[in-house]
């Protein structure tokens, strides 16, 4: 097991170096140099330009600059935002809880709805329930979620007036951020209506973000279920006279869920990509919106740092999924 | 003389075998009702794109100053001249959607062609030569796959400059690793088989072995992945357009149309609803065909 673990971690090292090279070299691909980009429209004398280039270390050889950058990454220094002048990592950690809260709610919706729907569809293969669920799943899978979000806003915020259009909580409420999760913090604060407000802000973006993972999980669960139900041990369990419910829930489901867990893990990338669109639509102050805003503000240190951290998160989650998979399915450990 | 006749016989039997394979494929594909519906919708879309000037009631950029934000024709305030209503600057939405089909299909085709060719070539090289070439290639692909595709495409477009062409290049780049992986895996399973060894013994060079001997036998998963990428490309390009980094206004690209309509969502539902519906229907049709292709080409499922 230890060898398996070490091997998986070691594979990540070259990938992470590659990711850092991309994040580093990306600013070099732009026309002009970083100082010109930072100065923007302002005119700068050649001496002043050279001075800043020297002060920021941009006149050193590229390899030295890269190693310096890599050293910064390892000590947690990702540079400073050009716009807010705050450290990139600090900005990331202020905004990340919002994205995490949204993503957790989305994946919960996707799992809690997707797995039962997939199981029932698989067990009742060919029934009207199966056909309807798979039809909906296919539509969800093909959904342009930015449009789906706008439609939900039209219906629930515009026509019905049930939910607010943007943000995480009404401005009426103010309380200290203990966990960074609005749902939990609003409960801790004990203010009447705060939790309700947080929940009503969260529900639409969470549904939008859950759409594609939900469809993928439902489809995957159904096909895993179909495969497992054809196995000999399921037939044996049936032959022993176990109730159909016990056969499905104990014998079949446990094995069918193994590939589904991998699928859930692989949704992290989908969730973070979806967060870019969802957070933009609902003005949700998380890292997806932060990245889009930075692209438009040409805040290069933030784009660089954000790329790096997001890729790092995805790699870590994929590693965890790999390890979990090795834990629940010992057959693959030796590969 | 006898040789020529024998050659002809071989060619003839090959042709017959190919026809039989196609017939078998069609038999399985046509059993899938969803796939047939998807195929029909795609054919209609292609027709609409090709014959856009004949079908669209107006030009995509014609502005009618007396018809701003007009609702669809079936509502009370609508006019028959504008079946799906007009947008905030008085352009006919139906006409823009019909012309927009050209962009979406074009984007899908270009992205898939770039990603497929690049992916197949790189994957063939990696799977055929193995060793450090393979390691370097696969690590680079891992790096690309470590980013959420939309984020990488967004940043790439920001570097290259917003626009449809750059968006297509960026999307092709982020979709390519899937083709590399599939091709490489397929090559690695095929390369040890007898027919490849016999071709090698017969003196076939590496290029011939790669392209003529091995590649045709790896096509099934690549075709399925290509349809998936086709719909992904359309979705991602629309998303980039929606974020303002894809096709630029006044291009009647569906995602860009949505971006322009965003501020009117609570006043005029039709400017938002129809472009998104067009994206959904197109992507859905392609995915239906993709599912059908997968079932028809996957020998594991054929027995059931």
TrEMBL record, chain A:
It holds the Pfam family BPD_transp_1_N. The keyword Nucleus does not apply. CDD domains: TM_PBP2. It is a multi-pass membrane protein. It comes from the Bacteria. The chain crosses the membrane at residues 6-30, 95-120, 132-159, 198-218, 256-282, 302-328. InterPro entries: BPD_transp_1_N, MetI-like, MetI-like_sf. Coiled coil: none annotated. Gene3D superfamilies: MetI-like. It is found in: Cell membrane. GO terms for molecular function: dipeptide transmembrane transporter activity. GO terms for cellular component: plasma membrane. Keywords: Cell membrane, Membrane, Transmembrane, Transmembrane helix, Transport. Residues 96-325 form the ABC transmembrane type-1 domain. Belongs to the binding-protein-dependent transport system permease family. This is ABC transporter permease subunit.
UniProtKB/TrEMBL annotation, chain B:
GO terms for cellular component: plasma membrane. GO terms for biological process: protein transport. Its main location: membrane. The chain crosses the membrane at residues 35-56, 103-129, 149-175, 218-244, 264-290. Keywords: Cell membrane, Membrane, Peptide transport, Protein transport, Transmembrane, Transmembrane helix, Transport. It is found in: Cell membrane. Residues 101-290 form the ABC transmembrane type-1 domain. It comes from the Bacteria. This is ABC transporter permease subunit. It comes from Propylenella binzhouense. The lineage of its organism: Bacteria, Pseudomonadati, Pseudomonadota, Alphaproteobacteria, Hyphomicrobiales.
């Amino acid at each position: 097991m230890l060898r398996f673990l070490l091997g998986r971690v070691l594979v990540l090292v070259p990938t992470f170096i590659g990711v850092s090279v991309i994040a580093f070299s990306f600013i070099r691909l732009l026309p002009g140099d970083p100082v010109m980009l930072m100065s923007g429209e302002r005119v700068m004398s050649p001496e002043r330009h050279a001075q800043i280039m020297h002060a920021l270390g941009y006149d050193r050889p590229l390899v030295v600059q890269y190693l310096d950058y890599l050293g910064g990454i390892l000590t947690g220094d990702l540079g400073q935002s050009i716009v807010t002048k705050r450290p990139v990592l600090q900005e990331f950690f202020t905004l990340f809880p919002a994205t995490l809260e949204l993503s957790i709610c989305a994946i919960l919706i996707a799992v809690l709805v997707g797995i039962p729907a997939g199981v029932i569809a698989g067990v009742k293969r060919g029934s009207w329930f199966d056909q309807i669920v798979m039809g909906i799943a296919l539509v969800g899978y093909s959904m342009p979620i930015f449009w789906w979000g706008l439609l939900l806003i039209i219906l629930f915020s515009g026509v019905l007036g049930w939910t607010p259009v943007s943000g995480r909580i009404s401005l009426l409420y103010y309380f200290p951020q203990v966990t960074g999760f609005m749902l939990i913090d609003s409960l801790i604060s004990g203010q009447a209506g705060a939790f309700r407000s947080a929940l009503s802000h969260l529900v639409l973006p969470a549904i939008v973000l859950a759409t594609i993972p939900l469809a993928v999980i439902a489809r995957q669960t159904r096909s895993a279920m179909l495969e497992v139900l054809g196995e000999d041990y399921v037939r044996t369990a049936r032959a022993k006279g176990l109730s159909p419910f016990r056969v499905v829930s104990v014998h079949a489901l446990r094995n069918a869920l193994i590939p589904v867990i991998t699928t859930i893990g692989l949704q992290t990338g989908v969730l973070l990509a979806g967060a870019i669109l969802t957070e933009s639509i609902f003005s949700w102050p998380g890292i997806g919106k932060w990245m889009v805003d930075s692209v438009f503000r040409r805040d290069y240190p933030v784009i660089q740092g954000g790329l790096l951290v997001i890729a790092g998160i995805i790699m870590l989650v994929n590693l965890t999924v790999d390890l979990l998979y090795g834990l629940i399915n010992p057959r693959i450990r030796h590969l | 003389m006898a040789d020529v006749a024998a050659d002809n016989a071989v060619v003839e039997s090959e042709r017959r075998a190919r026809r039989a394979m196609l017939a078998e494929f069609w038999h399985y594909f046509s059993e899938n009702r969803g796939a047939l519906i998807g195929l029909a919708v795609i054919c209609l879309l292609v027709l609409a794109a090709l014959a856009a000037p004949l079908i669209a009631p107006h030009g995509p950029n014609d502005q009618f100053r007396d018809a701003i934000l007009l609702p669809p024709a079936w509502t009370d305030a609508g006019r028959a001249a504008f079946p799906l209503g007009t947008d905030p600057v008085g352009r006919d939405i139906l006409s823009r959607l019909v012309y927009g089909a050209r962009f979406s299909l074009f984007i899908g085709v270009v992205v898939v062609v770039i990603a497929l060719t690049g992916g197949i070539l790189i994957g063939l090289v990696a799977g055929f030569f193995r060793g450090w070439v393979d390691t370097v290639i696969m690590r680079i692909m891992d790096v690309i796959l470590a980013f959420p595709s939309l984020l990488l495409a967004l940043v790439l477009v920001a570097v290259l400059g917003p626009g449809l062409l750059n968006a297509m290049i960026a999307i092709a780049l982020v979709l390519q690793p899937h083709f590399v992986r599939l091709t490489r895996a397929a090559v690695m399973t095929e390369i040890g088989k007898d027919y490849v060894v016999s071709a090698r013994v017969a003196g076939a060079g590496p290029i011939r072995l790669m392209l003529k001997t091995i590649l045709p036998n790896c096509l099934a998963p690549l075709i399925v992945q290509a349809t998936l990428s086709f719909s992904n490309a359309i979705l991602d390009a629309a998303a980039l357009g929606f974020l303002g980094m894809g096709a630029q206004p006044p291009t009647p690209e569906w995602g860009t149309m949505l971006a322009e309509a965003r501020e009117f969502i609570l006043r005029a539902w039709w400017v938002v609803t129809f472009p998104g519906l067009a994206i959904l229907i197109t992507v859905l049709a392609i995915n239906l065909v993709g599912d059908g292709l997968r079932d028809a080409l996957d020998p594991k499922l054929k027995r059931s």
